């Protein structure tokens, strides 16, 4: 019976059982797509990562990522979880400033370890943002059970690797009171140009944070994602392009609504249509090690 090393890592937190958990399957070369999808359903987490030798020069490892329902091209938290798992499993030699180069469906993604205030963390350099469709507030407001006045900036799809619909609302308190129509959001996803929905407000709930967010991905089999790295980078780019913030470095909090609070560090370079690098980062902690028996 084949077996595969498996680690479960909580990303965007240094505290076990917080942040966003991801399963990381090592030595996954040769697993069929259908098998990886079945494993992701078995794990029943937002995403499961599958690590294998790279096929591209310059990459250290290859990784693919699956939600319980489908493959996701370029996520955030399972990339951080993969870097942490490879380090804890002795597959990658950690050094401050060292860059792990992951081959993904969107090309090679550098993941750097930074050891400075406010703590050691992994930094993902995401692709430059791509700007998608705008959506009328009249279309999305009923799906979130909010009024038109509650939506304070034009909803738009933004991708820094995975397209996400950005919806900015007026306050963190409003975010906590959302009652999303998950069926309606799923239908809109299938009709639209995005993978999932990121709803956020300026001013965090916790001291020292700049933005508070919630994330819904019903079409991907995820009711609410605890902490979403891919969408955090797109959110940072959105806020800069629409001139909603003056800083290019911010701290986002997410996950309190599902009892798994986490923190994402976001850096955006450039301005307007000339946004360059987008980086997201966070801490991670391994909480489980074992073998997957197939």
The percent range for strand residues is 35-45%
Count of helical regions: 6
CATH architecture of the largest domain: Roll
User: What is the CATH superfamily of the largest domain?
Assistant: Diaminopimelate Epimerase, Chain A, domain 1
- What string gives the helices and strands in order? EEHEEHEEEEHEEHHEEEHEEEE
Percentage of helical residues?
A: 10-25%
Number of strands: 17
Structural class: alpha+beta
Q: Write down the CATH topology of the largest domain.
A: Diaminopimelate Epimerase, Chain A, domain 1
Largest sheet: 17 strands, mixed
Q: State the low-pLDDT regions, or none.
A: none
Q: Tell me the radius of gyration.
A: 18 Å
For the record, the count of structural domains works out to 2
| CATH domain class of the largest domain | Alpha Beta
Summarize the SSE layout with pairings.
Blueprint: E1 3-11, E2 20-25, H1 33-43, E3 47-52, E4 61-66, H2 77-88, E5 99-104, E6 107-116, E7 119-126, E8 130-134, H3 137-144, E9 156-159, E10 163-168, H4 172-176, H5 182-191, E11 196-202, E12 211-217, E13 222-225, H6 229-241, E14 249-254, E15 262-268, E16 278-282, E17 284-293
Parallel strand pairs: 2-3, 4-5, 10-11, 12-14
Antiparallel strand pairs: 1-2, 1-17, 3-4, 5-6, 6-7, 7-16, 8-9, 9-10, 11-12, 12-13, 14-15, 15-16
């Amino acid at each position: 019976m084949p077996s595969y090393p498996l680690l479960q890592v909580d990303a965007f937190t240094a505290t076990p059982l917080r942040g966003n958990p991801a399963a990381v399957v090592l030595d996954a070369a040769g697993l069929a797509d259908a098998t990886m999808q079945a494993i992701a359903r078995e794990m029943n987490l937002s995403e499961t990562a599958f690590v294998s030798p790279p096929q591209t020069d310059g990459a250290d490892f290859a990784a693919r990522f699956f939600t319980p329902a489908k493959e996701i091209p370029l996520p955030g938290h399972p990339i951080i979880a993969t870097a942490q798992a490879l380090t804890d499993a002795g597959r990658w030699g950690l050094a401050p400033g060292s860059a792990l180069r992951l081959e993904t469906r969107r090309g090679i993604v550098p993941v750097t370890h930074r050891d400075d205030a406010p703590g050691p963390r992994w930094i993902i350099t995401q692709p430059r943002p791509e700007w998608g469709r705008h959506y009328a507030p009249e279309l999305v407001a009923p799906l979130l059970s909010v009024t038109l006045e509650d939506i304070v900036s034009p909803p738009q799809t933004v991708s820094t690797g995975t397209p996400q619909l950005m919806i900015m609302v007026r306050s963190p308190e409003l975010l906590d009171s959302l009652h999303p129509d998950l069926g309606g959001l799923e239908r809109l996803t299938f009709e639209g140009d995005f993978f999932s929905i990121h709803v956020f407000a300026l001013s965090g709930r916790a001291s020292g944070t700049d933005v508070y967010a919630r994330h819904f991905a019903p079409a991907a089999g995820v009711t609410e994602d605890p902490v979403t790295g891919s969408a955090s980078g797109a959110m940072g780019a959105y806020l800069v392009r629409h001139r909603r913030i003056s800083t290019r470095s911010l701290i986002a909090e997410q996950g309190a609504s599902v009892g798994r609070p986490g923190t994402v560090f976001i850096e955006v370079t450039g301005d307007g249509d000339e946004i360059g690098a987008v980086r997201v980062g966070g801490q991670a902690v391994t909480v489980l090690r074992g073998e997957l028996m197939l």
